[in-house]
């Protein structure tokens, strides 16, 4: 029993270690130069694509890209509680939920116009609607294995992170020019910007009050990740070909996410444990996205083409207009 585990650990270690080193480099660039860590991780990983083909490192890189990803997503559950949802109020809560669902539905509808299938549309729509790179990786992990799956995931992570960074810069200017109140600005920023880090950056660049509210709204969007992934897994399982590998009825990382969110709602997770889980989640996701970068061929990534970029831009603009319209209707 011990010997096989030790042998597997020895096989996985080199690849995981390299993914970890890339994650550390990405975090360094984030802390010292303000570069988005997720974007840096995947960009630094991509030139190391040859390592994913090496016998000594390939297995560990594949493990990091899939298993560490799921660990990181599952641990996001410690940041969620029922109390957070109650603080927002029913009208804005419904707006946030509808924003996620309608954006995903819109993405599925327009995919064909950009020459993309429904799986790609769901991947990009979920990333835009929920929580950027983390959502892309979670959704990508339950999609059926297919050609170009890793290329599409890497493309989505890169594009959605760039768009999220642009939104962090320009959305506060937009809300100021529109004359939105601090509360409305917080709801808009949290309800539209893709990644949590960029929401925090945009919100607190305006005021502490706006930063707190935008972060709360963003984390409520994050709570949508588990049910969306669960429903998608059930649909994909039902529609899979007879005899083919079928997704599990309830992915284990979704169960873990929901359990942790429930425990946190009842105050059963100590602050020190929540802080530790948050750090582990961040590093697991950074290492996972670095590994995704290492599994991505740059020439193949370029094959995705301009229409796919415009598709994500369209999804992003749709979500912004939807949330802005909802804020004006609610008043």
Automatic annotation (TrEMBL):
<keyword id="KW-1133">Transmembrane helix</keyword>
<feature type="transmembrane region" description="Helical">
    <location>
        <begin position="280"/>
        <end position="298"/>
    </location>
</feature>
<feature type="transmembrane region" description="Helical">
    <location>
        <begin position="248"/>
        <end position="268"/>
    </location>
</feature>
<feature type="transmembrane region" description="Helical">
    <location>
        <begin position="122"/>
        <end position="143"/>
    </location>
</feature>
<feature type="transmembrane region" description="Helical">
    <location>
        <begin position="186"/>
        <end position="207"/>
    </location>
</feature>
<comment type="similarity">
    <text>Belongs to the UPF0324 family.</text>
</comment>
<feature type="transmembrane region" description="Helical">
    <location>
        <begin position="35"/>
        <end position="51"/>
    </location>
</feature>
<feature type="transmembrane region" description="Helical">
    <location>
        <begin position="155"/>
        <end position="174"/>
    </location>
</feature>
<protein>
    <recommendedName>
        <fullName>Sulfate exporter family transporter</fullName>
    </recommendedName>
</protein>
<dbReference type="Pfam" id="PF03601">
    <property type="entry name" value="Cons_hypoth698"/>
</dbReference>
<dbReference type="GO" id="GO:0005886">
    <property type="term" value="C:plasma membrane"/>
</dbReference>
<keyword id="KW-1003">Cell membrane</keyword>
<feature type="transmembrane region" description="Helical">
    <location>
        <begin position="88"/>
        <end position="110"/>
    </location>
</feature>
<keyword id="KW-0812">Transmembrane</keyword>
<keyword id="KW-0472">Membrane</keyword>
<dbReference type="InterPro" id="IPR018383">
    <property type="entry name" value="UPF0324_pro"/>
</dbReference>
<feature type="transmembrane region" description="Helical">
    <location>
        <begin position="12"/>
        <end position="29"/>
    </location>
</feature>
<feature type="transmembrane region" description="Helical">
    <location>
        <begin position="310"/>
        <end position="330"/>
    </location>
</feature>
<feature type="transmembrane region" description="Helical">
    <location>
        <begin position="219"/>
        <end position="236"/>
    </location>
</feature>
């Amino acid at each position: 029993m011990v010997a096989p585990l030790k042998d597997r650990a020895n096989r996985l270690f080199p690849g995981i270690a390299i993914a970890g080193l890339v994650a550390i480099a990405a975090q360094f660039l984030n802390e010292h130069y303000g570069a988005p860590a997720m974007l840096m991780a995947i960009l630094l990983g991509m030139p190391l694509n040859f390592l994913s083909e090496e016998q000594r490192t390939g297995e560990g890189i594949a493990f990091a890209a899939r298993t560490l990803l799921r660990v990181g997503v599952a641990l996001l559950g410690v940041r969620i509680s029922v109390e957070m949802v109650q603080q927002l109020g029913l009208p804005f809560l419904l707006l946030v939920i509808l924003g996620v669902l309608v954006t995903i539905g819109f993405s599925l509808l327009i995919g064909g116009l950009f020459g993309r299938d429904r799986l790609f549309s769901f991947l990009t729509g979920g990333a835009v609607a929920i929580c950027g790179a983390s959502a892309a990786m979670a959704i990508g992990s339950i999609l059926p294995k297919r050609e170009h799956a890793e290329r599409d995931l890497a493309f989505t992570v890169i594009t959605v992170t760039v768009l999220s960074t642009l939104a962090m810069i320009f959305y506060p200017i937009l809300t100021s020019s529109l004359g939105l109140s601090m509360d409305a600005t917080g709801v808009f920023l949290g309800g539209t910007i893709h990644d949590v880090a960029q929401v925090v950056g945009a919100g607190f660049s305006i005021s502490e009050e706006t930063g707190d509210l935008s972060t709360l709204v963003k984390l409520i969007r994050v709570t949508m990740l588990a049910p969306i992934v669960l429903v998608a897994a059930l649909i994909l399982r039902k529609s899979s070909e007879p005899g083919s590998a079928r997704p599990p009825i309830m992915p284990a990382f979704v169960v873990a996410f929901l359990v942790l969110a429930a425990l946190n709602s009842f105050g059963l997770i100590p602050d020190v444990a929540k802080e530790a889980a948050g750090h582990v989640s961040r590093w697991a996701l950074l290492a996972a996205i670095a590994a995704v970068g290492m599994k991505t061929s740059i020439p193949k990534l370029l094959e995705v083409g301009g229409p796919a970029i415009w598709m994500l831009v369209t999804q992003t603009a749709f979500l912004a207009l939807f949330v802005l319209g909802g804020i004006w209707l609610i008043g």
